[in-house]
Amino acid sequence: MTSYRPAAVAGRFYPDNARELNAMIKRFLVDAESSIGESDCNPGATDSRSLRAIIAPHAGYIYSGEVAASAYARLTPVRKSIKRVVLVGPAHHVRVDGLAISRVGLFRTPLGDVPLDQNILDELERLPQVNVNEEAHAPEHSLEVHLPFLQSLLGEFRLVPILVGRSSPEEVCDVLSHLWNLPDTLIVISSDLSHFHSYDEARRIDTETCRLIESRQEEQLHGKQACGYLGIAGLLQIARENKLHVHLMDFRNSGDTSGDRDRVVGYASFVVTEPKGDTSKTPTAIPRFDAESRRILLDVAAFAINHELQNQRTSSVDIAAFPKHLQVERASFVTLRTDGKLRGCMGTLSSIQPLVADVAANAHAAAFRDPRFPPLNADEFSRLWIQVSVLSPATPIDFEDERDLLNRIRPGRDGLILRFGNRRGTLLPSVWENIPNRQDFLRALKQKAGLEEAFWSEEIQLDRYTTESFSTE
Fold first, then answer.
1. What fold, for 289-386?
2. Which of 255, 337, 371, 451 has an alpha carbon within 20 to 30 A of 20's alpha carbon?
3. Predicted local distance difference test score (pLDDT) of residue 77
């Protein structure tokens, strides 16, 4: 029999009667839709490509239901395209180290059962900051209160429930990045704002918090501003990297909804969208690589190397013969190893040609033109391990000095490009496996660019990028 998590707060945070619950949610959504004006995130301007995530509160519906509905109403035009929801909220009741997922089969509410996406949870469980913690999920309201809204709007969907405990924005960002470009997927971040201040003080604090969220200044957020600040900050890192817009939909507190203004809790909702226009040309529109796409790119790399060994000439790539998403211009690196030792690594840092052509060219260069190694020979080919890393577009890092830069680097996630004058060097995110310390990583990057480890100048420029990497067995 499939295990399930029963509703823990039905009858307290929201009605436990399905008919009453449906009526309440419908009323919230109708009111929210009637207040939508002409903006970048109105239903007429929002499509399945532009709306990427929402942030919404998790208090009892009589306090925050209308605020949450102001974000959920924006899903109406795209609800048929959403098949999976990644729901991230803070753990309130049980101590959690890192991020906690659930592995039950279903989450149950008065509106029915929501199945969990077990394949995605399998992936997440392999990440070092993720663990299974059913004890934390059992009493938690921060995820549960969102489910009736999602059930009412989406009907059938699969859920990826994540609770954030003693963690960091970088760890949350890393988890979200693994899921960001999954097709038909919505990210929902659950958070209330300030707690138990006077009405006027809460308005002052929450106004500043909303400003920080809209301007994607996640480094200034902390737990006294929003209980789910780690989830918000992780999402905002991705939004800033991908130049996404964060729009405030509604902002109130319990003094506005319950009447008691002595000790109030703040609530706000936001939607995260891509800029209007042809989003198919933006980095976030490029899909995550499935198993077949990975196999194709690894085969392309292997063929480019073997063709040179067999024919002593470079192979040509028939671009049109490959799936369209592999014809998009992307930058890549190809890393080669034999017997566990590095045998070559070459790549590009900017998108200058179709991805399949870039992978073929870099595989050939890694095998035969890496100046650190002699050209690969035929005897080595059968022992060759190949890794393809596809790069995201690089974005500049703003920093005041070297210390500030070190605080902004995200270990395990960032690939870095250093530029100083005519010198340039890069280290892929995979290098963090061997150099886990920020300062040591930056020193190695300076050396790669031909600079002394202790060198620093205000003219140094740093860009960051991420990779999706996959390899032969």
1. Glycoprotein, Type 4 Pilin (3.30.700)
2. 255
3. 82
- pLDDT tens track for 401-448: 998 899 888 888 889 999 998 788 999 988 998 898 999 999 999 999
Quote the tokens at residue 134.
Answer: 């059913």
In sequence order, which ranges of 126-168 are alpha helices (DSSP H)?
134-137, 141-144, 147-154
Q: Check residue 16 and give its pLDDT.
A: 95
Q: How confident is the model at residue 461 (pLDDT cuts 50, 70, 90)?
A: very high
Closest CA to 288 of 470, 101, 87: 470
Average pLDDT taken over every residue of the chain: 88
Confidence at residue 104, expressed as pLDDT on a 0 to 100 scale: 95
With tokens 């038909």, the residue in question is 184
Q: Does domain 4-282 have CATH number 1.10.1040.50?
A: no
Nearest alpha carbon to residue 297 among 317, 272, 267: 317
Does 276 have pLDDT greater than 60? Answer: no
* Order of strands, sheet of 106-109, starting from the edge strand that comes earlier in the sequence: 4-5, 106-109, 112-115
Look at residue 48 and tell me whether its pLDDT is greater than 80. Answer: no
Q: Residue 43 phi/psi, 5° resolution?
A: -55, -35
Superfamily of domain 395-471: Hypothetical protein ph0010; domain 2 (3.30.1490.150)
**Half-sphere exposure of 106 toward its Cβ, with a 13 Å CA cutoff?**
14
- Sorted by where each begins, the domain ranges of the chain are 4-282, 289-386, 395-471
In angstroms, the CA 112 to CA 393 distance is 42
Q: What radius of gyration, in Å, describes the C-alpha atoms of the chain?
A: 24
Sheet holding 395-396, edge to edge: 395-396, 461-465, 415-420, 423-427
Q: Which of 112, 125, 117, 25 lies closest to 69 in space, CA to CA?
A: 25
Q: Nearest 5 degrees, angle CA 380-CA 386-CA 388?
A: 155
Query: Phi, psi at residue 25, to the nearest 5°?
Result: -65, -45
Q: How far apart are CA 189 and CA 233, in angstroms?
A: 10
Asked if pLDDT for residue 351 goes beyond 80, the answer is no
